[in-house]
Amino acid sequence: MFITAGIIWMPACPGMLPDMLKIENLHATVADKEILKGLSLEINAGEIHAIMGPNGAGKSTLTYTLGGRPGYEVTSGTATFDGRDLFDMAPNERAAAGLFLGFQYPVEIPGVSNVQFLREALNAQRKWRGEEPLSGGDFLKRARTQADAMGMHMDMMKRPVNVGFSGGEKKRNEMVQMGILDPKLAILDETDSGLDIDALRVVGDGINRIMRKPDKAVLLITHYQRLLDYVQPDFVHVLAAGRIVKSGGPELALELEREGYAEIAA
Amino acid sequence: MSALPTRRDEAWRYADLQAVAKLWPLAAPEQLVLAEGEAATRHLVLDTDAGAADIRQITINLAKGAKFSFQLLVMGGHYGRVELDVTLHEGADFDLGAVILGNGDQTLEIITTVTHAEPNATSNQVIRAVLAERSTGTYLGKVAVARGAQKTDSAQSFKAMLIDRTATANAKPELEIFADDVKCAHGAAIGELDAMSLFYLESRGLTPADAKRLMLQAFVAGVFDGAAAEDVLQAAALQKLGEMVR
Ligand SMILES: Nc1ncnc2c1ncn2[C@@H]1O[C@H](COP(=O)(O)OP(=O)(O)O)[C@@H](O)[C@H]1O
Ligand SMILES: [Mg+2]
After folding, report:
1. I need a labelling partner for A89 at 20 to 30 A (CA). Which of A62, B50, B231, B243 fits?
2. What is the DSSP annotation of B84-96?
């Protein structure tokens, strides 16, 4: 045997692994304005995809549309998530089915405690899946493990959701939530924005630790190459004017960084 | 009591006058007197049976240096009304924490008249209303500062959250000030739950009803914080909130 490294990472083999997410010809409007204009994308279990694109390309719109945010209206096209019709499910059902959204701007919710809401959320997901609720003790253990891994104090986890958190703390809190909820597919919208280099490493490690597994997948949405140094994607796509205009391997991200979006997307 | 009130009576403008007529004439208001330096707390949950009506009138007299803290939860009945008429003497203190929770066709009202009769008294009123469906919630709060009642410190804060566009909140803080060295703060705000916050909570797996309940709980929770009857009040409020967001 020639196994020298501790982990062998097998890039996905199409045909062997089932589709995790399949988006076909998606058109979506926000405030009656068409933003997504025929977007298609296929992600298999075990894969990490990156979507890059200029500001205003529709990256966050794609995130919100897949998450089911009110006001983001699908006008045509389909999306299948783990064998289910994604657009047929309410946002909380999408979460229970294993979808996690990492928000570009995590919301502050005064008066609602992080751990209290996460425990309720996790148990609501489990109920939807026909699983037993997690006890208070087991939940706290899980929360502590995830918080520790992201360098977050439990005190912060007990505070109201994101209130008074710095930009970096909000993004780390998103990763703690992802660790606790343990989704199948994470769509992370500019999780790297507002992070300094140390926080970027912590967040990148978190994504790898939680999501780099054969039965999970990630869609990383980012403006810059730098997160991709820590979380290496299997595929890179360029989103421009509401469509995927180019796809390739990790080298595409470097090319984009070098040449700019204008060149590539043209 | 006097003649049946009409719409033209400012204090009855938003009342359910049909319900009022059935209760008329009202019994004499309950009298509550605190002696000099005395301190007391009290809570009232107006949890009238569905379809029924109830009006409570309480006259409160606080002697020199007396302290009274009142927690009020108005949530039951087709029509519910609590009237407080408070008089503060030298250095007395009145604290009101009130929550109105309405749904269906309920009309729920809190009417306060707080008179600072002498100097150095303080009053603080915090009222939160959550209104669903076709319910109406009203807070009419009058603060009167008598001539010579210097160093009066009085605050009123009313905030309402409308769960449905068909619900109504009325707020009318009224100041009548005859002294010059006084501090009277008042504020009223009517809003809706933040849609982005609800989506954030739902994106983590909470049902829409649970997401709303959590946010509403946060909205009213502070009012009863630290009260002697906090557990009873929070539990009653939580139960009603649960029914309201179903
Ligand atoms: N709530 C909204 N109302 C109106 N237009 C919007 C809204 N959200 C996004 N847009 C528009 O949609 C386009 C794509 O925005 P967005 O998805 O945020 O882009 P990106 O995340 O790639 O920067 C932009 O032109 C933006 O102005
Ligand atoms: Mg964006």
Report:
1. B243
2. EEEEE-TT-EEEE
pLDDT at residue number A183 = 98
Nearest to B62 by CA among B102, B93, B27, B84: B93
Task: Identify residue B127 by its one-letter amino acid code.
Answer: I
Whose tokens are 């804060």? That residue is B157
pLDDT in tens, A13-30: 444 556 899 999 999 999
Report, as ranges of residue numbers, the positions in chain B whose pLDDT lies below 50.
Answer: none
The rounded Cα A6 to chain-centroid distance in angstroms is 26
Q: Please enumerate in sequence order all residues whose Cβ is within 8 A of that of B37, keeping only pairs 6 or more positions apart, or say none.
A: B63, B64, B65, B66
List beta partners, residue B32: B60
pLDDT, tens digit, 9 for 90 and up, residues B181-225: 999 999 999 999 999 999 999 999 999 999 999 999 999 989 999
- Whether residue B209 is contained in a domain is answered as no
Pairing of strands A160-161, A109-113: antiparallel
**Residue B90, in any domain of the structure:** yes
What is the model's pLDDT at position A41? 97
Which residues have CB under 8 Å from A200's CB, separation 6+?
A: A192, A226, A227, A230
Report which residue type is found at A62: L
Q: Per CATH, the architecture of A19-113+185-265 is what?
A: 3-Layer(aba) Sandwich (3.40)
Q: What is the pLDDT of residue A224?
A: 82
Residue B211, min C-alpha distance to chain A (Å): 9
Domain, as residue range, for B166? 10-192
Of B197, B205, B217, the CB nearest to A181: B205
Q: For residue B194, what are the contacts with CB-CB under 8 A and spacing of at least 6?
A: A107, B215
Residue B14 is given by DSSP the state: T
**What residue of A is the nearest CA neighbor of B215?**
A112
CA of A28 to the centre of ligand 1 (A): 11
**Peptide bond connecting B25 to the previous residue in cis, omega within 30 degrees of 0:** yes
Kindly provide the b/e burial profile for residues A67-78, where b requires at least 16 CB atoms within 10 angstroms of the residue's own CB. bbbeebebeebe
Per-residue pLDDT tens for B105-131? 999 999 999 999 999 999 999 999 999
Number of structural domains in chain B: 1
What residue ranges of chain A have pLDDT lower than 70? 1-18, 265-266
| β-sheet bridge partners, residue A101 | A187
Q: Is A77 touching ligand 1 by the criterion CB < 6 Å?
A: no
Q: Which DSSP string corresponds to B149-164?
A: -TTEEEEEEEEEEESS
Crossing angle of helices B208-224 and B230-244, rounded to 10°: 150
